[in-house]
Amino acid sequence: MKAGDKDTVHIYTDGSCSGNPGPGGWGALLRWRGVEKEMSGSEAATTNNRMEMMAVIEALKALKGPSVVALYTDSQYVQKAMTEWLAKWKAKDYRVKGGGLRKNHDLWRQLDELSRRHRIRWHWVRGHAGDPGNERADALARRGMEEARNGAAADTKVSD
Asked: Out of 25, 38, 41, 52, which one is annotated catalytic?
């Protein structure tokens, strides 16, 4: 954490999927003023991209009010969508050539709405490269995926 950003919520997110689609999990680590919160969840049949997005959605839902956020993800799909592509997608009402809806449009709409409540700096980090926050988010996502594999999917788990 840098000096001067003590009020910034640092969020690390990751998603995991066994098969694509298959059982999947997501994980998030939130840090604020020395307090940490771990979150995870799962779905029985999903994709890795959906789990990457769910990690961010659930982390942002956990914030109690408008916040300054530094969000770290190893998903270029999420990071680039939120910083480069989303405005164009919204202008086209999430439609692609031919008139169909963009993949994951339901989650993009939700993520857009949640992100507008906060001031977010989006950071891409290389996955599995030793970043401690990303490694913890990855472990949480893998735990969620294992729960989905074992038939215990759905609930969100939070620990302080």
From this structure: 52
Q: Active-site residue 131, yes or no?
A: no
E-strand stretches of the chain: 8-17, 22-32, 35-46, 68-73, 119-124, 157-159
pTM of the model: 0.91
Hey, where are the domains in the chain? 8-159
Q: Which CATH number fits domain 8-159: 3.90.850.10, 3.40.50.740, 3.30.70.250, 3.30.420.10?
A: 3.30.420.10
Q: Is 106 a catalytic residue?
A: no
Q: What is the mean pLDDT of residues 114-138?
A: 94
Identify whether 15 is a catalytic site residue.
yes
Q: Is the pLDDT of residue 158 over 80?
A: no
Report DSSP state, residue 62.
Answer: H
